Amino acid sequence: MQRSRAELFENDNGSYDVVIHLDQKPNLDHLVTVAGSTTQFYVDYEIADTRKARAAQRRLFFALIHDIANFSDASPEWLKELFYLQYQIYTAGKQISLADGTKSSVSDANALLDLVIDFMFEYNVPFKKGYELLTKDESFYLYQCCRHRQCIVCGEHADIHHIDVIGNGLDRTKVDHTKRHLMALCRVHHQEIEQIGPHAFSEKYHLPVTGIKLDVETLKKIGVRGDYSESERIVVEV
């Protein structure tokens, strides 16, 4: 992952251009290999939150580390160093710290937490001490549940539930699901939300039922078939 500076320009027709300034010259041979061109290719981007990492992020990180330690018998200190090293590899050498006075940002800490929570979902590590600190009221937790097809209520294997009703008789493989709000629910809780309604469901389990939107790559990975031709047409001119 390479950090770079970007500028946004609005055109007269209401569209927008993004100009990305790279700190170093990209590997042009690699671009030709993966994209077939050095002038047009697809990119993923996110807007970095450069504010200083929050104390709440530190508390959540160490609570989750203790959950993994209790599950695996590995020491919290060893796990901390392990995930710091994984972050360094993921960011191509960038260091991170959650100590007081850190220069790491909110986005840096979120990337670290993403690695930890992804590990816990992947290896079915139970959330105990860190459960109450999980940001279930935000899209991050809902995203991970969808990504790993785990029910947001009980953690069992889940189907992808559409908040936006598609309609009877409509072929779901012809729908662009990136434009739909989704959530992961097992069969039992899927039936329950249909029976009692989203408002009562949200009050009962203290969970949001607004759902989230997923990108094309994630939808394809979890097996949600659809027509994504329009959403994949994101081209950056260099």
Features:
disordered C terminus; two-stranded antiparallel sheet; 238 residues; 38% helix; alpha+beta; 8 helices; two-stranded antiparallel ribbon; globular
Structural class: alpha+beta
Radius of gyration: 20 Å
Largest sheet: 2 strands, antiparallel
- Overall mean confidence score, pLDDT: 77
Count, helices: 8
Please report the total strand number as a whole number: 6
Q: What is the element string, with H for helices and E for strands?
A: EEHEHHHHEEHHHE
Helix content: 25-40%
- Silhouette: globular
Pfam family, one: HNHc_6
Organism: Paucilactobacillus nenjiangensis
InterPro entries: HNH_nuc, HNHc_6
Protein name: DUF968 domain-containing protein
Q: Describe it for me?
A:
This is DUF968 domain-containing protein. InterPro entries: HNH_nuc, HNHc_6. The protein has 238 residues and is an alpha+beta fold. The protein has 3 domains: 37 residues, no CATH class; 84 residues, no CATH class; 95 residues, no CATH class. The protein is 38% helix and 10% strand. The protein contains 8 helices and 6 strands. α2 packs parallel to α4, α3 crosses α4 and α6 crosses α7.
SSE order and pairing:
Layout: E1 5-10, E2 16-21, H1 28-35, E3 40-41, H2 55-72, H3 76-90, H4 106-122, H5 139-147, E4 159-162, E5 182-185, H6 187-196, H7 198-205, H8 216-221, E6 236-237
Helix pairs in contact: 2-4, 3-4, 6-7
